[in-house]
Amino acid sequence: MSLNMSSRDSKRSHREFNTSSKRRNHSEFSSLKKKNDAFNGQHKGEETVVILYYKPKGVITSHSNQDSVSLNNLQPQEQDGRITVYQDVMSMKGFINAENLNKSFSQVTGIHSKFHAIGRLDVDTTGLLLLTNDGGLVHHVTNPNSATALDQGKIVKVYDALIMGYHTLDPELETSTKLLQLSKGVDIGKKYGGMTLPPNELQVLNHPSSKTTLVRIAISEGKNRQVRRMFHAIGSGVIQLHRRQVGNIDLDMLAMGSEDQVAEGSWRLLTKKEIMNGLNWKVRPLVDAKKQTSKSNSNNRKSGNKRRRR
Question: Where is this region: Disordered (predicted)?
């Protein structure tokens, strides 16, 4: 009798434990889901935001310090002490709007989630870097094989490169051989994407010395470290690399009419009109964009199932 009672009590306790455990797990899952939605750019009321940033040398384009998106911990966490572009921007030190200096990054930008660089710049490269919370825009600008490939030709990236050697573009001079080769596209190695397209623009700006050449080059592809690898392919190393422009967005837009030289680390928000005219992209509500994408994918799966049944 006592054994049967003990058995019933044990079963009841087991059921109560399972119910309690399920409720707790569901609560934890819901809480985690909300955090993940915010982390992935799906914060309620958030829309496309683009930051125009002047990246200094030595600042890295990495998410290693932005994994928890915390404004309370902006100290360098890399072993060598370098900060990331995300930390630099979120610190508000370079924000060029005196009226909002007392506001936080989230208050100024409306970004409460993770944001991304539109095309990375390596640690030694300086210049224009765009940051956004809209993953679709990143894909639109950086992926030549995307559905927006027709627009890709308009979204060029312009660089000034100080390279080794004395080079010209005069076909009658022997010093033009390497750059003329570059103008037709070069093989940067199968591992890095193989043959490149011809540059959209290639010109010699000047010769700082008898052993160096300052070149302006514009490309519409987005291969990893492509400009450096293109010059390496013709046997000329890059001493300094500076990005001036992406699409119709350039560093001069940071000056906002001022004649003062823009300091490295400076940044500001682009307007909706600038995003549209400069990147051929319309500002959109990100939550709605995700729902539309999910619905489209669901419809595609359904239509695919129907075709298989036939």
Answer: 1-40, 286-310
